[in-house]
Amino acid sequence: MAQISLTFPDGNARQYDAGITAADVAADISSSLRKKAISATVNGQHWDLQWPIETDATIALHTMKDDEQALELVRHDLAHIMARAVQEIWPDVQVTIGPVIKDGWYYDFDRKEPFVPEDLALIEKKMKEIINKRDAVKTEIWDREKAIAYYKDRGEPYKVELIESIPGDEPLRMYWHGEWQDLCRGPHLQNTGQIAGDCFKLMSIAGAYWRGDSSRPMLQRIYGSAFTNKEGLKAHLHMLEEAAKRDHRKLGREMDLFHMQEEAPGQVFWHPNGWTVYTELQDYMRRRQRAGGYVEVNTPQVVDRKLWEASGHWEKYQDNMFIVEVDEEHAREKAVNALKPMNCPCHVQIFNQGLKSYRDLPLRMAEFGSCNRYEPSGALHGIMRVRGFTQDDGHIFCREDQIEEETAVFIDFLSAIYKDLGFENFSVKFSDRPETRAGSDAVWDKAEEALLSATRAAGIEPEINPGEGAFYGPKLEFVLTDAIGRDWQCGTHQVDFVLPERLDATYIGSDGEKHRPVMLHRATLGSFERFIGILIEEHAGKLPFWLAPRQVVVATIVSDADDYAREVVTALKAAGVRAEADLRNEKINYKVREHSHGKVPIILAIGAREIDERTVTVRRLGENKTATMALDAIVTELQGTATPPDLR
Hints:
The protein is 35% helix and 27% strand.
């Protein structure tokens, strides 16, 4: 029999018969490893312990201590175990697909009766019974005819359709968890008992069209979360509980910031409190951009399709655009326009007005650009994912030899802003060419090399995010981590050689000839709507004082304090503090509870003693104790705290 060489992570190699499985390799090393092993990595591919290895390869064996592989297998096996449990309880249910997703898995079922929340506990109980049986997991490769016949006999039309959609040269792998069988690429664990019975929880039920097609049957989707142990699950459930408390939609109501309604899906109705936050943040960004050498512009909302065709958006991005047809006076046909989904083609139009010299570069152009993009209604989420939004958008027109410096300048610019807003640390992802793109491979090679080199020159080694670049160029994505560990992709920085070419942007070089500028697309916050949602959830509604929409409420204890309360409010407003008086004939404890619920940072209580002493009693949000301060002292303190960080 032919021999193969398997090389282990420590560099040592062993000789084995071709066709040996990773399980046998583990057993050859030690009996304890054979029991603990869950999978292998063979030549960089995650490998089932039962799969044969036919050629020389590198190999690494995994146990439950290897989090990445263990999590994938636990979640994948639990999807199968859940489907098995559902069919053991309700044999008439048809199964479809059950992939691993972030934090867990889901599985889609076709069942005549709807699942109800009470069913989840029943399914969980059955799953734990299956785990405790420690049933062996087995796998085989079948030919198509056998697999199709098998599923037709069992009344599983969805599996038949899946098989028929798989390319003919791909092997069909079958897995059994005990007697229950599914079509699956694998890998999987050795037996159901390798999963801890207390490491998972079924979370919710939702509807989902078969294969995402609204013309196909509506299925029922059950979501589950799982980790390698109960501690991981407990931490995750705590995070979800904390996230629910911080939900910007809930806090938006409590703080009277905004609302959404069905007549304007995916668009925000900003209330006075919310608009105060919005404009304070925008004013801060405007000052920062001016200090950073940007010129601010404003461009049209509705633009003829001709520009979008020239830019490439009509071909590559039309599905996300709102089309506007206008019956122009005396026109023989309607003019076709689009609401702008992004600002870049319009900024090139401004650049193209008049001759530009190499001495004018870099030209940093910024716009608080109002954009509209179509998002499916099911994807909309409060102000975090909307159809109408405003970007702190910017485009830097520069020479190729300026890419590195401008990238470093932008990273410093972004870092300072994130720090001001309470985010000390962020990670960076490098997204390279997507499948659907404009421009030649040579242009993409140049753009990717330039951006990656510039990022490394700025002292950052980014995480590679394959295939996620914009259609016109590679990009950096700046990812914030919030107070409860969630990641938010906010800022972006993109190198674009394509759009200047398509829209004929030029400058006069030192040689007197025309040259194409490079276009750097950049956003710091991204969408104002989304970033405000992130800030609300990061701070659990307790926004930094300078951003808080209602900074101070002066609440009277007795009606005789009304005049002094008005005087305090006047003094605070004169100092630049947003202050209001609560003179209602209500008990002070009621007023404190109400304004604390609305996340007002400072409540100043005033009674007879405060009038006599020219003081106020200070209650700070989240603190039980109070303090008495002289009026002049509190005004001076709050004046400093209310000053935006860039003006201190």
